What does this fold into?
Amino acid sequence: METGLAEPAEGQAIDARRQRRLARSVRRIAGDVLPPVIVLTIGILFWEVWTRWRDIPPYLVAPPSMVLDRLRDEPSFFVGEGLVTLYEALFGLVCGGSIAILAAVAMAHSRLVERTLFPIAILIKVTPIVAIAPLLAIWFGFGLAPRVVIAALISFFPILVNTVTGLRSTNPDALAFLASIHASPFKVFIKLRMPSSLPYVFAALKVSMPLALIGAVVAEWFSADEGLGLVIFASNAQLDTPTLFAAVTVLAAMGVVLNLVMSLTERAVLFWHESVRESR
It folds into this structure.
């Protein structure tokens, strides 16, 4: 009898815990999603009312309803052009991020390497991408290469700086313990330095992803026959504001989705870190 009574009680306790976790998840999602959605909705309504009330010509500022109609007319066109830009941005982010992380590892382990490479990284950072985009098109042709290079260049610096900071932000006590047991530099890197750097790397990726999208769009102005950048450039030249805003809307939506995917990945990978635990 005691066993029979204990099983339903245990089952009820498990159900109660699941319900509490579900309620916390719903509250967290509502807290993350509702505020920006409310503010964005108010902004769009104000935009619509303002353009209609002031009778502003669509070639100056298109109302949101006209932009939405343009998206509904040719959704496959905007999705296809968006996928081209997304591929270029992600390819460039992977290339630039990989080089930045490798350089950061070398810089974190050698002050000489840091003094050698960091001025070059700053030079890359301060170089205006718009100024060198035509040169890259001349050097690499009008294919995929210059767009990927620009996306990589623009996303390189944040990942480099954050990764170096993360690799050096190790717990001194943990570092002393590993030294006391004569751990090899490789084990120190794998067990301590790399995990310590991951929060900084994810923060850098959140910054670099929209920058890579911007870099791909800028590159498409000079060296592309497809992509959202070309759509924006051509529609601006033709005063086709609805198409321009529709392309910008797709670009913004891609940025939001990429940031959301990165945030979810960060929570899954860094479940042990206090920054993730506190946000749950």
In short: The chain has a mean pLDDT of 84. The chain has two domains: 1-55, 63-279.
